[in-house]
Specification:
about 240 residues; single chain; alpha+beta; 4-stranded antiparallel sheet
Length: about 240
């Protein structure tokens, strides 16, 4: 299993499992299946109309043409096929891909997938070493596996309030090393309560918000505590 090392803005190397060529091919086949079902459904609707309506064809083909672009934007780097296989598009610098990144990936599909039946994408991913097809190289992205095996570490475990509910499900984007860093920052602030510790809290909050793709109204200390609680809650649920 190949790993992708992503260096965050904090100069911390984070290891992700790269989605395999097989997983990406299967996700593409699933997407083709969903599009085929959609196509048949629209044909059925059109056949039930008493006369041919031009907008039906627009409703049929436009969403199919822009399918991967629209879903990756709406579903945070995933199409339906990618979500089923638990893989996702990410940027190599650890930040959240933007619309431009998704657009570049989509634009290169013409070369990567359509013109040569996916052979260009398969060869490029196989030799690149970072799980990138041409579109990923141009967009500065890759595709990682989210269903990684989670190791429970005693340093990460905290006592959760009874019936605690997750506030930020986006903590699933964080790694154990990042949660450990958050806990160290919280511990440092609790022991020192200084201007320096507050600045460290604020900086850490900003970095974690960016990684998770959220903007919190909580103050830095409360937000980071919630992040730790949420991470533990999700860990516990995955290990049941």
């Amino acid at each position: 299993m190949e790993n992708l090392s992503i260096q965050t803005s904090q100069n911390v190397d984070i290891q992700h499992n790269i989605a395999s060529v097989g997983e990406r091919i299967l996700s593409q086949l699933l997407d083709f299946l969903f599009l085929f079902v959609y196509f048949l459904a629209m044909l059925f609707v059109n056949s039930k109309l008493s006369y041919n309506i031009e907008w039906v064809w627009w409703v049929m083909f436009v969403p199919m043409f822009f399918y991967s672009l629209l879903f990756e934007i709406i579903m945070n780097g995933q199409t339906l096929g990618k979500r089923i296989l638990k893989i996702r598009v990410v940027k190599l610098d650890g930040s959240q891909p933007g619309i431009l990144n998704y657009f570049i990936r989509w634009l290169f599909r013409l070369i990567d997938i359509w013109l040569f039946w996916g052979s260009v994408a398969i060869v490029t991913i196989a030799v690149n070493g970072k799980g990138q097809r041409l579109g990923d190289i141009a967009a500065g992205t890759s595709v990682i596996r989210l269903g990684r095996k989670i190791r429970l570490k005693e340093t990460l475990l905290v006592h959760l309030p009874q019936n605690y509910q997750v506030i930020y499900p986006q903590v699933s984007l964080l790694l154990e090393e990042e949660i450990s860093l958050v806990q160290e920052v919280l511990s440092y602030h609790t022991k020192n309560r200084s201007k320096k510790s507050q600045e460290l809290l604020d900086l850490t909050k900003s970095k974690i918000e960016k990684k998770m793709g959220v903007k919190s109204h909580y103050d830095s200390f409360d937000f980071l505590r919630i992040v730790v609680f949420d991470f533990n809650k999700i860990l516990n649920s995955l290990c049941l």
